[in-house]
Amino acid sequence: MADTPAPTPQRIALLSFPGIRAFDISVITEVWGVDRTDRGVPAFDLHRPAADPAPIPLRGGLTLTPDRTLAWLTRADLIVVPGLDDHLTPAPAPVLDALRRAHTRGTTIAALCGGAFTLAQAGLLDGHRAITHWNLTHLLREHHPQVTVVPDALFLHDDNIWTSAGTAAGIDLCLHLVRTTHGAETAATIARSMVTAPYRTGTQAQFIERPTPRADRDEDALASVREYALHHLDQPLTITDLAAHAGMSPRSLARHFQATTGTTPLRWLITQRLAAAQKLLERTDLPMAEVAGRTGFGSEVTMRQHFAGHLGTSPRAYRAAFRQPAGSNPIAS
């Protein structure tokens, strides 16, 4: 029997030009440029296309060497635009033209942090929502008034373009893009390798205010609540249940939970239920009703509604796309 041909690796373009941030280059390379096939992660085809083949100087004495011309963007499945050291740095005209052509072709484009300014220069964000680092939102509004700047999110999607907030949010977006293409288990394996959180939702707040002394004292109670919820996802947990476990009133729990995590208890709980359901759909052949029961959705209908609202797909379609092959056992590190 003939061997099944290996799938074509996803082609990722790290768009390269003077002024881009070394940190974002490192994030993109760490997510898509490291061979983790021995841990069940698919191979990726990451390249660094640029308008000029000359090495690009970066801050800190580093240098980035392009390995493809901009023509390679026609082959890319995903184009990732790093942030900028100076957020008003004009991108080379050939880069902006290449981005416009890629968007017209329907290629997915993602910008990390100040990379939103590059997409705005290309006119790709006009009339659309976008996010950038919280300290740069006023600057993006001022210089690109046609863009609807969202004040507080980690990352968001509009018109096949993804934008993200600053620094760590770029990691969140990259892992989310892996998750939507290759499944939660692949994204979690990469996150474990990077020793970073496997999943923060895009709607989570960019940052949390400095905790008050009372919030500091309550942190242990909130950590205990989260641990309790994760071990009882199959139960119909409510804010009242969680508040009782923490020894707080429901209102106090909601206030402190938002202050320390950037999201509400119920949103956090739904996120954890979805993550648990994704894992079961990828790893097991359990019936849909049992997956829904084990993860606290109660019914397949409710689980399907949450999958549609948060992941844009159905549980059955998700399983068909991301079911792990029988006998596969990704290394957990």
UniProtKB/TrEMBL annotation:
<dbReference type="InterPro" id="IPR002818">
    <property type="entry name" value="DJ-1/PfpI"/>
</dbReference>
<dbReference type="Pfam" id="PF12833">
    <property type="entry name" value="HTH_18"/>
</dbReference>
<keyword id="KW-0805">Transcription regulation</keyword>
<protein>
    <submittedName>
        <fullName>Helix-turn-helix domain-containing protein</fullName>
    </submittedName>
</protein>
<dbReference type="Pfam" id="PF01965">
    <property type="entry name" value="DJ-1_PfpI"/>
</dbReference>
<dbReference type="InterPro" id="IPR029062">
    <property type="entry name" value="Class_I_gatase-like"/>
</dbReference>
<dbReference type="InterPro" id="IPR009057">
    <property type="entry name" value="Homeodomain-like_sf"/>
</dbReference>
<keyword id="KW-0804">Transcription</keyword>
<feature type="domain" description="HTH araC/xylS-type">
    <location>
        <begin position="223"/>
        <end position="321"/>
    </location>
</feature>
<dbReference type="InterPro" id="IPR052158">
    <property type="entry name" value="INH-QAR"/>
</dbReference>
<dbReference type="InterPro" id="IPR018060">
    <property type="entry name" value="HTH_AraC"/>
</dbReference>
